[in-house]
Each structure stands twice: as structure tokens, then as C-alpha cells.
Amino acid sequence: MNRITTIILLLLSYVASSVATYATTGFENPKREFRGAWLHVIGQTQWQNKSTEQAKAYIREQLDKLHDAGCNAVIFQVRPTADALYKSELEPWSAWLTGKRGKAPSPMWDPLEYCLEEAHKRGMEFHAWLNPYRVTSNAKEILPSSHISRMEPQRFFKYNGQVLFDPAYQENRDFICKVVDDIVNRYDVDAIHIDDYFYPYPAPGKKIPDDASYLKYGLGRNRNDWRRHNVDLLIEQLHKTIKERKPWVRFGVSPFGIWRNKRSDPKGSESTGLQNYDDLYADVLLWAKNGWIDYLAPQLYWNLDTPAAPSRKLAKWWNDNASDVDIYIGQDVKRTMDVADPGNKDKNELDTKVKLSRKLPNIGGNIWWHGYWVTGNYKGAADSLAMKYQSTIALPPAYGDPAIRPANLTDIRIEKEGDRKYLVWSAPEHRHGEHETDAVRFVVYEFYSGEKQDIEDPQAIVALTPYRKMLIDPDAQGVTYAVTALDRMNRESEPIFLYNQDN
User: Fold this and answer.
1) What is the CB-side half-sphere exposure of residue 405 using CA atoms within 13 A?
2) How far apart are CA 174 and CA 325, in angstroms?
3) What is the CATH number of domain 34-389?
4) Per-residue DSSP letter, 134
């Protein structure tokens, strides 16, 4: 039988809601959901023992396993301690990569660039993860004489065995923003991500040694308010730095999971643990309210009913109190898989935690801590994600003006290469320079004869790819394909359809 391919191009209009909502309706898994994983290098000495090619293979392996588990974003640590896992003229190479701070990898390579490119090849977002203030992670590390903390020690303080930037100094805020601007300018990152380390975690009996900077800059203010203001200034300046360079690059913060306890503030959560606002001097709700950040990923690493910090109640608290920005829940894989679900002792907590994140309307997804527990399939975590909770391909949440979309595709066709068949599509070329509406990824939908052609059905998505072609089954009959474009802000174009009909 001769196959006649009839190409019919249809552009379907559909209404995009101006308000993001993430609760699942109609389908077991949502079409849009942030499914991230943290890959850290601090404390991970295996990097130091790998050759360049072995390290590259390791990155590919980690990304393959995360992708297979249904993740659509990687949060990769590129600046753990005022150092760099990339080529930088501002800070030295990281000892966590080469074994010695300032020692370049040999043969030379750029882990940030390589991981970013490999993530994008798999249709995944890449978030560059930095720690803003930490210079050393322990008291034993000897910093080179050329390090900024040795050259201008008055801008730093030592606390509990660590060296840290003093948040009070404008010179430090300028330097940290210069580091971030360098990354955003030179690399095609999707987001800048900072973690929960602001002023240092309190150590019993130890006082933060910032008397000198308080006398210089405090101007008689309450010291706690002054410290919070110092961190506020950095967050605001970081946001401005990122958006002035590339408006589509997101700025996300992953804070400790408690803002304030109810006993400290009537607006606080039903918890009794350490507090961002009072102990780390991080007023994350203010940052969200003022539009200085694009997403929050509170670290709810506790179990569902941990007395001091019940993640079940805390997830609802963040949903109700931080709705000015997107919220993704930081989930601890090990604790989740180790503990029986309170409602069903035959299961772990994964099912309840995922369903809770999808039930709460302002929660847009989850980030798994840490990614190595996913790639190592700890107690079947990756299997559970791949086979159930992340079994369908999910588009990351869209952001920016919903009235703006990438241009529609201009052509769709099937091409033969030997005994293989490819679905091929064309998109308008990018304008001169980068722009938020550039088509950077494409979504491919597949519908069989008799199926409703609904691009809101996540089960119809068969690919999320940066490429403009996809290998298809040469013997497939009665299949209809639809392809859309995603821009840099994950907004989706209208679909273009191709019908295959046999005569």
C-alpha cells in the first residue's frame, strides 16, 4: 500500500489565563509543573577524582537519570564558596572541582557551560546556583593571598569556623552582583538561584562579629532590623542586575522552610523551629511582595508531621502567604522515602507530598534534594517518579506577560532519511540578538485515530526538545501530530497540526 501523506496546517486559537494556577484538574499529572533537582558540589569529593572526560560523562549520566525520572530542570551549584565551577576572572576555580582552590582543571573545561548545554539538549532548564555570602565551609581551608577576603579583610568576618562576606558593605553587594552579572551575560542560563545561607546559621553561645560594620553603618537602628535591611538591599540589587542584563532570566531563592513561628508573629506558621526572619535575617515574604524575586523554593525537608516543623502544614502556609511569586516545594528525598506515611503505614510519604503540592493552587511543583538520591534511585524514588508522579512530560511554568507568545511555527512535514522518518518543523528565525520571545524549545503532541486532539492533555506530549525534528515510527498509521514553540519564558505558541492519512 502506498502511503500518501496529506499535510493540513491548522492554527487553533485558545485562551490563555492571565492567572497561573497549578492544581491538577482532569488529568492525574499536570501539563505544567516545575520538576527540579539540586546537584551540589560542596562536600562531593568525587568530582576531584575524575578526569575531564570522566566528569563530563558523570554530568551526562546524572542528567540522563534526572530526565528519565521526569525532571525538567536542574539546579547546578556553580559558586559554593566564593569560587567558580566555570571560567571566571573574578573568583578562583573551586577546590571542590580540582582539589585546590585556584587550580584550573586539566584538560581545561567549563562545568557550568557543559552542564548547561547538556541540560538544554534534553529540553531541561538550567538554573545556576550560587551561595552569596559564604567564602569557606570550614576553618581548616587556607585561602590564597590573591583572594578578595585576604586582600580586604575588613569586608569579611569569621563565624563558627567559616569566613563570610559581611552583608553590611555596599562593596560586597556590588561584588556579588558583578559575579552574577558575569554569569548572566556570558551564559544562556534560565535562572539564577541562591540558597538559604544569608547571615550565618546561629551557633550556641557565639555572636556574629559585626560590631565594626554596625558602628559604621547602623546609624542607631535596631541591629536585627539593620541586618535584615542589609540582606534586602542585596536581593533588590541582584534582581535589578539580572533583569537589566536579560529580563527573561529568573531569580529564585530557596530559603529555610520557616519564615516565622506563630509564637513570634500571628502571621507565622504552626511550627517551633529556626526562623528565616529572626535567625538568618531574611525577610523572604518582603522580597516576594516587592517583586524582587521570581520564585521561592522553601526547603520543607521535614516529614509530614514532624512536631517542630510539619511539612504538611508548612506547605499550606507558604501556599497561603507567598502567592505573589511562583512557589516550588523543596523536598528531601531520603526523609520522604525513609518514613511511613501517617495515613498508610505500608507506603512512604512520597504519594502524599506530591498530591499535596498539586492540591494547593499556588504551588507550581517540587525540587528534589538532593538530585543524587534521585539518580541513585534511593529506595526506588526515581522509579516512583518515572512510573507515576512524573510519568508524563511536563512543561515548566510560564511567566511574564501571558498576552505575549512566541511566533507560530511556519511549516510541518515528514521527511525520509533512508529507512527512517522524521517529523520536521520550521520556526521564524530569531531576531538580531536574544529576545524573550525567541523559540528555544518545542513541544510535540501525538494523537491516535479517534482520540480528542487536546493539547492540554499531558499524556499527549511525546517530546520537549530544542531541536526542529523528531524521529517517528515509520509504520505508525492514523497518527496526528501537533507542534508548538516555547519562548524563553515558557509561553506556548498556538499549535500547528499534521495529519497522516493512508489511502
Assistant:
1) 17
2) 25
3) 3.20.20.80
4) B
**Angle subtended at Cα 291 by Cα 285 and Cα 296, rounded to the nearest 5 degrees:** 50
Q: What would the mean pLDDT of 310-338 be, rounded to a whole number?
A: 97
At 160, list the grid cell.
563558627
Integer angstrom CA distances of residue 155 from 395, 418, 438:
43, 65, 41
Spatial distance between the Cα atoms of 430 and 299, rounded to a whole number of angstroms: 38
Give the position of cell 536542574: 74
The β-bridge relationship of strands 162-165 and 191-194 is unpaired
Q: 20, exposed or middle or buried, with CB in 10 Å at 0-12, 13-18, 19+?
A: middle
142 pLDDT above the threshold of 90: no
Mean pLDDT computed over every residue of the chain: 92
Q: How many residues does the chain have?
A: 503
Rounded to 5 degrees, what angle do the CA atoms 456, 119, 239 make?
85
Query: Residue 356 contacts by C-beta under 8 Å, 6 or more apart in sequence?
Result: 312, 315
Distance CA 103, CA 100 (A): 6
Q: Find the range with the poorest average confidence among 80-94, 348-362, 488-502.
A: 488-502
In angstroms, the CA 31 to CA 396 distance is 9
CA angle, corner 447, sides to 445 and 448, nearest 5? 155
- Per the CB < 8 A criterion, the answer to whether 235 and 293 are in contact is yes
Sheet holding 469-472, edge to edge: 411-417, 420-426, 469-472
> Do 367 and 36 contact (CB within 8 A), yes or no?
yes
* Cα(499)–Cα(426) distance, integer angstroms: 17
Q: Which CATH class is domain 411-499?
A: mainly beta
Cell digits of residue 366: 517540587
Q: Are 77 and 39 in contact (CB under 8 A)?
A: yes
DSSP-derived secondary structure for 368-412: EE-HHHHHTTGGGHHHHIIIIIT-S--BPPP-S-TT--PPPP-EE
- Tell me what the mean pLDDT of segment 465-482 comes to: 92
What pLDDT, in 10s, does the model give residues 86-132?
999 999 999 999 999 999 999 999 999 999 999 999 999 999 999 99
User: What are the boundaries of each domain within the chain?
Assistant: 34-389, 411-499
CB of 382 closer than 8 Å to CB of 62: no
Neighbours of 89 (CB within 10 A): 6
Helix and strand totals (H; E) in the chain: 13, 19
Q: Regarding beta strands 326-332 and 34-39, do their DSSP bridges make them parallel or antiparallel, or are they unpaired?
A: unpaired
Confidence of residue 21 (pLDDT cuts 50, 70, 90): very low
On whether the pTM is more than 0.90, the answer is yes
Distance CA 378, CA 385 (A): 11
Residue 496 near residue 482 (C-beta atoms within 8 A): yes
